[in-house]
UniProtKB/TrEMBL annotation, chain A:
It comes from Mesorhizobium tianshanense. It holds the Pfam family Reductase_C. This is 3-phenylpropionate/trans-cinnamate dioxygenase ferredoxin reductase subunit. Residues 5-300 form the FAD/NAD(P)-binding domain. The keyword Flavoprotein applies. Its cofactor is FAD.
UniProtKB/TrEMBL annotation, chain B:
Belongs to the bacterial ring-hydroxylating dioxygenase ferredoxin component family. InterPro entries: MocE_2FeS, Rieske_2Fe-2S, Rieske_2Fe-2S_sf. One of its GO terms (molecular function) is 2 iron, 2 sulfur cluster binding. PANTHER family: FERREDOXIN-RELATED (PTHR21496), RIESKE DOMAIN-CONTAINING PROTEIN (PTHR21496:SF0). Pfam families: Rieske. This is 3-phenylpropionate/trans-cinnamate dioxygenase ferredoxin subunit. It comes from the Bacteria. The lineage of its organism: Bacteria, Pseudomonadati, Pseudomonadota, Alphaproteobacteria, Hyphomicrobiales. NCBIfam families: MocE_fam_FeS (TIGR02377). The keyword Metal-binding applies.
């Protein structure tokens, strides 16, 4: 008898996987288990558009009607507490249990926590819609907002808070913002955009102490400076949610370790999205873990295909974007694979950095500009990266040479 | 209905490319296919209202520049996550080198 498919984690990855199973014609039971009270929803707006209005709204991946129509059972507000691999059974926090033929772990990631104890309502993290609601309530004109960590979530929130009239200070322990994965030339543009809007950015200074008395957050920097804020939002990275997998005896290696088909060491258990590390074919199988919306979506769909026996290897090129003020940043590939860069200037101050490996292969492209000015060329670069192309640096650097023409080469 | 409006010169759009056209408070995207035919759709992606004219045209597909939602621009059909709502299309004709669309 068919026991069906169980997906643990009802975020972008899990939600897409459930829909993909139906798109592929699977007609057995599909159960999506999530620990949040909401429908599966898109997280990227939480640090961007959702903050712009008076109250954040859920951008659902599938409505109740769609879930019902597609016979996807969504169990919300419940955690998976144990996997009995021998019995093909998942135990849930409400005491119930579910049997599976194939199981997908799409447990995502969770904000990395500061090691200081005693932080409460004035020192918060952003991951969920409910986190966004709580943060939005503090983003008003005249309020002082401290952002700990100059990464994407922190900077996007800083931009949103600034637009709402709050006085924003960003604290980054590294010598510059966006140290991880963003070239200095592009980080500088973003840094300047924030300063032009009145955001204060303090780099190269770590936190010595942080306290939350329920009314204010007080931050003491190692360099001696003190910051008092109505709200501190901590955005210092994310860690994969692996506890369930680890307790079930699955291998953890910077995330739940899976093969190119997103399968764990157990042939009936898959993992996808933020929670897993996988071999990235485009860089010779280098094991990576990606925290990105598109990766979550693509891996959710790929996991669904492979749960149904497709045996398809992951082949996508990493891609992500960030919006701050009117600027959009897009990066295809991992720029740390690069050895040299070639710059292509586009209209209106937009530009793209192409990252080339020592043998001339295009391995990544990072672009920034107003609106979606870099989008088309970054997409074409992504295709060139996927083909392991070695385009002539002169052609990449010249705005008069269409990137599309390099694809045909 | 004969509400045809002139959008641009046929030569303004490269083959396998797209151009934005705004008219009377509305925005459209006009496409020239690799086999040199012209098509028109609503200008904004049905997912998050992003201008499709900033996206990439490959064969008969337009891809949203923001989240890679795909549509067949000849039919308006949505072609995969995150888009699930089709794009409205409009009749196009060429008259004396000009592209006209019936915006009805």
């Amino acid at each position: 008898m068919t026991k069906g498919m169980i997906i643990i984690g009802a975020g972008e990855c899990g939600g897409r996987a459930a829909l993909a199973l139906r798109d592929l014609g699977y007609d057995g039971p599909v159960t999506l288990v999530g620990d949040e009270p909401h429908l599966p929803y898109e997280r990227p707006p939480l640090s961007k558009d959702a903050m712009a209005g008076n109250a954040p709204e859920i951008k659902a991946i599938a409505s109740d009607a769609v879930l019902a129509e597609r016979s996807i059972r969504h169990i919300h507000s419940v955690q998976a507490v144990a996997i009995d691999r021998a019995a093909h059974c998942v135990h849930l926090s409400d005491g119930s249990s579910l049997l599976y033929d194939k199981l997908l772990l799409a447990t995502g990631s969770t904000p990395r926590k500061l090691p200081m104890p005693g932080l409460g309502v004035r020192c918060v993290y952003l991951r969920t819609f409910n986190d966004a609601l709580a943060i939005r309530a503090h983003l008003s004109a005249g309020n002082r907002i401290a952002i700990v960590g100059g990464g994407f979530i922190g900077l996007e929130l800083a931009a949103a808070a600034c637009r709402l009239g709050a006085a924003v200070t960003v604290v980054e322990a590294q010598p510059r913002i966006l140290m991880r994965g963003v070239p200095a030339e592009i980080a500088k543009i973003i840094h300047e955009a924030h300063e032009a809007e009145g955001v204060k950015i303090l780099c190269g200074d770590g936190i010595a102490a942080i306290a939350d008395d329920g009314a204010k957050a007080r931050i003491a920097l190692a360099g001696g400076q003190n910051i008092v804020a109505d709200l501190a939002v901590i955005g210092i990275g994310a860690v994969p949610v692996t506890g369930l997998a680890a307790e079930a005896g699955l291998t953890i290696d910077n995330g739940i370790a899976v093969d190119a088909e997103l399968r764990t060491g157990d042939p009936d258990i898959f993992a996808a999205g933020d929670c897993c590390s996988f071999p990235l074919a485009v860089y010779g199988g280098r094991r990576v873990r990606l925290e990105a919306w598109r990766n979550a979506q693509e891996q959710g769909a790929l996991a669904a295909r492979n749960m149904l026996g497709a045996g398809e290897a992951h082949a996508a090129v990493p891609w992500f974007w960030s919006d701050q003020y009117g600027l959009t940043l897009q990066i295809a590939g991992l720029s740390d694979e690069g050895h040299s860069t070639v710059r292509r200037d586009l209209d209106d101050g937009a530009f793209i950095l192409f990252h080339l490996a020592q043998d001339g292969r295009l391995v990544a492209a990072s672009g920034i500009g107003l609106g979606n000015t870099v989008a088309r060329d970054i997409r074409l670069a992504e295709m060139l990266i996927a083909r392991r192309a070695k385009p002539a640096p002169e052609a990449l650097g010249s705005q008069t040479v269409k990137l599309k023409s390099l694809l045909a080469a | 209905m004969s509400d045809w409006v002139e959008a641009c010169d046929a030569e303004d759009i490269d083959e396998e490319d797209v151009m934005r056209f705004d008219h009377d408070g509305r925005t459209f995207a006009i496409y020239r296919s690799p086999d040199d035919e012209y098509f028109a759709t609503d200008g904004l992606c049905t997912h998050e209202k992003v201008h499709l004219a900033d996206g990439l045209v490959m064969d008969d597909i337009i891809e949203c520049p923001k989240h890679n939602g795909r549509f067949n621009y000849k039919t308006g059909a949505a072609r995969g996550a995150p888009v699930c709502v089709n794009l409205r299309t409009y009749p196009v004709r060429i008259d004396a080198g000009k592209i006209l669309i019936q915006i009805g």
